[in-house]
């Protein structure tokens, strides 16, 4: 049966990298019917917003989307398009795997971890105000509902993917009430999953350990702000933005997208690395239950990386975006 998927090409480099991902996914063996809808900076003149309602409706209807990056216009009074999208669709879990890939030079060889970040609250609730001229205050919200939901999501993911350990990251020694509540919820949920090891780690120690021995970590679950920082750190361990995929997942919909932004200075040059988007597509295939197709795409990617010929500039090569995608398809068909 064909899967209907919303495709948002996005701004800047978005159209090039989503075209590359579409080409690879179309060759994967999974039957996908793409519903292409435009969002971002380019639709503002027509709709007065970067995120028109019909885009949200398309994702609600299809429940799955592959999305290119969207530019948040500065100084026009728009909220971040990406944050709005996550809130509108209640995409409460941000999932960012970081896995060592062959042929990509990094300091570490055996990284294979998944950062699960709470996406809806913490300091990102955006409740801030100035207190007089020389002070400002930001309110950190943590609820039992969101904390339990995200930790349960992490354990379910661990179980599904045959992972051995979940590490809950917090700063409850200082923020005893907010992070303390998160930790309390994490302990309660962990007790329901005796088959998966559970450990707790203070966020600063986590950062140090991740750069010392990242191979010791498996699934990491944490609050919004720490998750934001740790997932970039994790991307850096395996080769940076060009190879960092992500997903924002809720109960009603899931949006798959690269971690990087629209990189406007590279737009239209057929130059940037499409792997982050293609790897997001692999996550999407797994979400759709298309395991063989996902494996086929991974074989294509690994084939290209091992051969080392069709690599984009950030991986030390000079291939175009479209050449790398074509090479991946060729390897998938071998
Ligand atoms: P960026 O990630 O777009 O680019 C930073 C730099 O990283 C680029 O100049 C480039 O050198 C490198 N880079 C990024 N993607 C690459 C790729 N695929 N291959 C090779 N190199 C790559 O970050 P930015 O410049 O801070 O943001 C630009 C715009 O993107 C902003 O408007 C921002 O709001 C938006 N943004 C959107 C998303 C999203 O849609 N999820 C995420 C982050 C930023």
Automatic annotation (TrEMBL):
GO terms for molecular function: isocitrate dehydrogenase (NAD+) activity; magnesium ion binding; NAD binding. Its EC number is 1.1.1.41. Keywords: Oxidoreductase. One of its GO terms (biological process) is tricarboxylic acid cycle. It comes from the Bacteria. InterPro entries: IsoCit/isopropylmalate_DH_CS, IsoPropMal-DH-like_dom. It is an enzyme of class 1 (oxidoreductase). SMART domains: Iso_dh (SM01329). Residues 4-328 form the Isopropylmalate dehydrogenase-like domain. Belongs to the isocitrate and isopropylmalate dehydrogenases family. This is Isocitrate dehydrogenase (NAD(+)). It comes from Ammonifex degensii (strain DSM 10501 / KC4).
């Amino acid at each position: 049966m064909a899967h209907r998927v919303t495709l948002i090409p996005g701004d800047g480099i978005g159209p090039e990298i989503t075209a590359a991902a579409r080409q690879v996914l179309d060759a994967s063996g999974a039957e996908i019917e793409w519903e292409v809808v435009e969002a971002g900076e380019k639709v503002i003149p027509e709709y007065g917003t970067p995120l028109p309602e019909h885009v949200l409706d398309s994702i609600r209807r299809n429940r799955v989307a592959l999305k290119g990056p969207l530019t948040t216009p500065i100084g026009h009074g728009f909220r971040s398009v990406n944050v709005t999208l996550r809130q509108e669709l209640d995409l409460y879990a941000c999932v960012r795997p970081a896995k060592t890939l062959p042929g990509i030079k990094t300091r570490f060889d055996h990284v294979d971890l998944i950062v699960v970040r709470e996406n809806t609250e913490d300091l990102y609730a955006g409740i801030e105000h100035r207190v007089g001229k020389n002070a400002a205050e930001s309110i950190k919200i943590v609820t039992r509902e969101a904390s339990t939901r995200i930790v349960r999501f992490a354990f379910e993911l661990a179980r599904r993917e045959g992972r051995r350990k979940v590490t809950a990251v917090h700063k409850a020694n200082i923020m005893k009430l907010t992070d303390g509540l998160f930790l309390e919820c994490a302990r309660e949920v962990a007790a329901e999953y005796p088959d998966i090891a559970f450990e707790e780690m203070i966020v600063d120690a986590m950062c140090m350990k991740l750069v010392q021995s990242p191979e010791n970590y498996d699934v990491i679950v944490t609050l919004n702000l720490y998750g934001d920082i740790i997932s970039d750190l994790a991307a850096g361990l395996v080769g940076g933005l060009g190879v960092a995929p992500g997903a924002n997942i809720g109960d009603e919909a899931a949006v798959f997208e690269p971690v990087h932004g629209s990189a406007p200075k590279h737009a239209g040059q057929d130059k940037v690395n499409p792997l982050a988007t293609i790897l997001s597509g692999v996550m999407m295939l797994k979400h759709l239950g298309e395991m063989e197709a996902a494996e086929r795409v991974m074989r294509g990617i690994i084939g290209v990386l091992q051969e080392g010929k069709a690599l984009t500039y950030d991986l030390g090569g000079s291939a175009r975006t479209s050449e790398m995608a074509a090479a991946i398809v060729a390897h998938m068909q071998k």
